[in-house]
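testing teh design pipeline on a random one, pls ignore if ur not involved
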């Protein structure tokens, strides 16, 4: 039986005035350890969950989503609290083989040189949810995190490009921020971006961007579209997630996905999300998406993660709902945020593609630092 480790604070770290509470604290610790040994892996009814998703009303995707200063998903509000988190921490963990635990994505070097030698547009994976996109010669970066930690979780693989190398690229930079969680909004990385960087954020995050030294900030609500240049639009779209930072109350800023639209290209960036009917509506309203960058991470245990995260099968379902030409998985291979190993996504997607009849040629699993030219309708890695 695998149990999550607990950090025991040595008694010498406790204030002398609290020595009388040590026995009670030790009893509580022992109870927690005992509970972790008797709480089994909780089962999860996939069919019931899918029925819940399918029964939601698409009209609620357009409903008001702010009440008493907090944002929410009106089609299916989240009902999960600290007790659920505690149960996850006190439960058994799924056992993975040593080979699965050790697997990581390949990391390619010399990305700056390959950028300079690539004449057209491209998508390059920097790591986690950070992608560098050149579209119509303009640079975009999604949820940039170059730091060693996402608050607490430590990087397992290096970024495919340094922040200094990104800043050295010619022209003004554009950034898409999907939400406030630390693995998507890294204060240190935002602070170190060039001062004239334009940042697109969901509602509520402009003030934080200003505090981090970025004044060219476009704050957007779901379904809002803004011009980003000649024949170019950024569309802010719904996602099924939530928000919080240490200095921010839960859900006081919005979360979102984004669509980059030009005269000859549509690139969808899914941010962080669980599976929801919004993918069908986005595909209906914006047909002809070329690339769908969708998260596949932190899906184990399913009973706890299913609302806010996609597993491999759901990611392929979202890809199908969007009607996109190609699917690129995001958010794997860098930080361990769920119980599953960081390198499990390729094998999970292969199995899911087989069971769902998805053409594997339409799934592009990139390596960190890999550059994918997008001018061709049939890209070759």
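output:
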């Amino acid at each position: 039986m695998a149990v999550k480790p607990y950090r025991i604070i040595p008694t010498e770290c406790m204030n002398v005035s609290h020595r009388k509470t040590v026995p009670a604290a030790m009893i509580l610790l022992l109870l927690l350890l005992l509970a972790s040994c008797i709480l089994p892996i909780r089962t999860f009814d996939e069919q019931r969950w899918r029925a819940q998703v399918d029964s939601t009303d698409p009209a609620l995707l357009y409903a008001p989503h702010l009440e008493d200063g907090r944002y929410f998903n009106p089609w299916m509000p989240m009902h999960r609290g600290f007790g659920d988190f505690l149960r996850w921490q006190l439960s058994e963990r799924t056992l993975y083989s040593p080979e699965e635990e050790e697997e990581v994505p390949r990391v390619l070097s010399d990305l700056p040189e390959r950028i300079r030698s690539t004449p057209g547009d491209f998508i390059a994976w920097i790591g986690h949810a950070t992608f560098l996109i050149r579209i119509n010669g303009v640079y975009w970066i999604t949820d940039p995190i170059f730091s060693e930690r996402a608050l607490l979780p430590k990087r397992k693989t290096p970024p495919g490009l340094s922040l200094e190398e990104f800043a050295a690229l010619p022209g003004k930079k554009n950034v898409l921020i999907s939400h406030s969680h630390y693995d998507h909004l890294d204060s240190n990385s935002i602070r170190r971006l060039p001062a004239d960087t334009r940042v697109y954020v969901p509602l509520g995050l402009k003030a934080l961007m200003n505090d981090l030294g970025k004044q060219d900030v476009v704050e957007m609500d779901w379904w809002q579209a803004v011009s980003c240049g000649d024949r170019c639009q950024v569309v802010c779209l719904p996602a099924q997630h939530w928000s919080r930072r240490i200095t921010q109350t839960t859900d006081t800023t919005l979360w979102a996905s984004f669509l980059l639209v030009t005269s000859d290209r549509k690139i969808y960036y899914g941010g962080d999300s669980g599976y929801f009917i919004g993918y069908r509506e986005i595909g209906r309203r914006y047909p002809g998406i070329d690339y769908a960058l969708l998260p596949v991470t932190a899906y184990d245990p399913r009973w706890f993660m299913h609302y806010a995260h996609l597993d491999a099968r759901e990611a392929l379902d979202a890809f199908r709902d969007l009607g996109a030409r190609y699917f690129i998985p995001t958010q794997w291979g860098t930080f361990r945020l769920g119980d599953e190993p960081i390198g499990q996504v390729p094998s999970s997607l292969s199995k899911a593609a087989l069971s769902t009849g998805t053409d594997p040629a339409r799934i592009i699993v990139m390596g960190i630092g890999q550059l994918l030219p997008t001018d061709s309708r049939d890209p070759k890695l």
